[in-house]
Amino acid sequence: SGGSAPPALPEEDCMRLNPSFLGIALSSLLAIDLWASKRLGVCAGEASAWGSARPLLKVVEVSGHGIPWLLGTFYGLCQSDSSAAREVLLNLLFALLLDLVLVAVVKALVRRPRPTHNKMDMFVTISVDKYSFPSGHATRAALVCRFVLHHLVLAVPLRVLVVLWALIVGISRVMLGRHNVTDVLFGLLLGYALYSVVEYCWLSPLNAPALFALW
């Protein structure tokens, strides 16, 4: 009674009463991310602040979707009569497939739900597309942007347009309410890094003769 020490709290209660600095920082970042994403989702629905611009941003959405890029790359690969062009297109196809697999794996592991203000009317979705992190469109846009800038000879205005397209695709994901800000930022960084992997594993007639024998 008199001089006895108070009973010790369970470990989990101590953790709740004394949260780590990292935990506080992550919670604050998540709260800011959700708040900013909702404020920036100005085209999430027809009744939103910029709802009239929603059809235009959905065109941008299709321009960064995987299916048009995969079909277009495969068609170009089949129609190309230049060995150099076939090599570039085959590696672009490899990059796009690698991007799809990696994003699907990360989404399935993280399982972050899409923003609550998102309207599920996206162009051709699969099971993991119900998850938000990371943005596959942003990842693909950054990957394709680096690939095109490194392997196509373009005039400066066209190079600027390619970079702007990648940025607009990323921004449109938040404006449409499809993703949170951190989903897009991580997606852009992942796509940028993924290009380095593609360059390191570059396919050529020397290291992948069987693939080039198909075309």
Automatic annotation (TrEMBL):
Task: Please cite one Gene Ontology biological process associated with this protein.
Answer: lipid metabolic process
Q: Where is the Phosphatidic acid phosphatase type 2/haloperoxidase domain?
A: 88-199
Q: How does the UniProt record describe the way this protein sits in the membrane?
A: Multi-pass membrane protein
GO terms assigned for molecular function: sphingosine-1-phosphate phosphatase activity
Q: Which residues form a coiled coil?
A: none
Per the record, the domain of life is Eukaryota
Q: What is its EC number?
A: 3.6.1.68
Q: Which UniProt keywords apply?
A: Endoplasmic reticulum, Hydrolase, Lipid metabolism, Membrane, Nucleus, Transmembrane, Transmembrane helix
Primary subcellular site in the record, as a coarse category:
endoplasmic reticulum
**Which SMART domains does this UniProt record tie to the protein?**
acidPPc (SM00014)
Indicate yes or no for the key word Lipid metabolism: yes
Question: What is the reaction catalyzed?
Answer: (2E,6E)-farnesyl phosphate + H2O = (2E,6E)-farnesol + phosphate; 1,2-dihexadecanoyl-sn-glycero-3-phosphate + H2O = 1,2-dihexadecanoyl-sn-glycerol + phosphate; (2E)-geranyl diphosphate + H2O = (2E)-geranyl phosphate + phosphate + H(+); (2E,6E)-farnesyl diphosphate + H2O = (2E,6E)-farnesyl phosphate + phosphate + H(+)
Q: Where in the cell is it found?
A: Endoplasmic reticulum membrane; Nucleus inner membrane
Q: Which GO CC annotations does the UniProt entry carry? A: endoplasmic reticulum membrane; nuclear inner membrane
- Record-linked Pfam families: PAP2
Q: Where are the transmembrane segments?
A: 89-110, 147-172, 184-203
Q: Which family does it belong to?
A: Belongs to the PA-phosphatase related phosphoesterase family.
Entry protein name? Polyisoprenoid diphosphate/phosphate phosphohydrolase PLPP6
What species is given as this protein's source? Answer: Chauna torquata (Southern screamer)
Q: Which gene encodes it?
A: Plpp6
